[in-house]
Amino acid sequence: MIDMTVVELSRWQFAATAMYHFIFVPLTLGLSFMMAIMESTYVMTGRDIWRKATLFWGTLFGVNFAMGVATGIVMEFQFGMNWSYYSHYVGDVFGAPLAIEGLMAFFLEATFIGLFFFGWDRLSKVGHLAVTWLVALGANFSALWILIANGWMQNPVGSKFNPDTMRMEVTDFMAVIFNQVAQAKFVHTVSAGYVTGAVFIFAISCLFLLQGRHVELAKRSMVVAASFGLASALSVVVLGDESGYVATEHQKMKIAAMEAMYHTEPAPAALTLFAIPSTTPGEPAFQVQLPWVLGLITTRSLDMELPGITELTEHAAQRIQTGLIAYNALQDIRADGANTAARATFDEHWADLGYALLLKRYRVDIENATGEEIAQAALDTVPDVWPLFWSFRIMVGVGFFFIAFFAVWFYRASRGWLDTNRTMLWIGFAVLPLPWVAIELGWLIAEYGRQPWVVEGVLPTFYAASGLGFWDLVISLTFFVALYSVLFAIMVMLMIKIIKAGPQDKLFSAGGESDDEDFVMAALPVTPATKELRS
Prior knowledge:
The chain is mainly alpha-helical.
């Protein structure tokens, strides 16, 4: 029988490392393109202020990139450590995008980052600009392949279960790459990263203006951030709508849970703005709705129904029973590989095999499952409704806030009012954490809303975990949380040091030595040794 405590600890560990890692990824995506835009302006105008801006924000990008690499490597090791059966079952499909990401994207990005920092005096202006754009493209290619892998977990196209190897195998690699869910997730995720980079640059620039430091650089950075941020914020909302439409096609239970919609409504369904949960599971005790809006957004039609949680649960029970047919045929194939009748039956019903595996939580001999056990397994396909309901609304609220925020600042920039109101500058600085709030909630919706599946409809989460012991997971979870917390604190302190030091004329000379010792010293802690170095 499955030890659910071990499974939950494995989930907590992966969630903790993934959410730590995604603190750094969106800022890397956003800063990389804004660096490229600023350096392009420098090459076109020849004004040194844009070179200083590229160097300054590039230094902060470098620190963030290093932390993202350190935290991302651990996540991949967990597939073998905590999720070994997952790696066995779907590794032939899931492993390919990860390998391509490392070979094509990460090496591209990492190689050109070195040239970005050390190539200012070794390359021509145009050559160095090409390097900066390749850094940005490498960062986005890296995100693309990771999201192709994740998109396959949400919508496992281009693959089939092989009863001879007992593994999922690729049947159409192009279908995996051009997976509708993966492409929607990619454009939505990178747009959110661009908003994060724009907010970061804008907030730090507001701080500089409040302090009366680096005024010219801050103003120019704010103009770029306001323009880039407004376009990105609009993209996030539009592309997020597309993600919702795609999820309606492939993950109906997730949509129903996000809307706390327990029963199918007449088309087009209403959008719930606010709801109060009832004291017992079921329909909300109170809700405020906008008629028709949800149906129009998610189905793009006036007559297509959105199924509710109750109806979807009944459909899951039917798929479990069909999956048992595939499971029994699989046992016959394993007993006699030449059994053509069993193979034909399996080929007809294999798509529901994963639903039958949901019964493994309750008994080993699932072919003898009772009606009560089937009904309970079908209920397991319903994720926790209220965390998804509120996470979605907070995320969307933050997204619309940033459209208004950047629109106001874009207008103020066009009128030359960037530093005329200190209250507005304080607001511009205070919004700094909000992109990360929305992004982390977005990933919670994507991953938590997929439960109980680690691969939608194919492999239950509890069935994918390794057979680690309770204390193995407690110790490793505690270690990773402590280590990542220390690394995060170090990164924040280092970035604060860099921001306090401010923009510099150069980072590295052609000889490889620092051209600005004050910049290096400003980033060092004050100790007797560093005092002596300063002297």
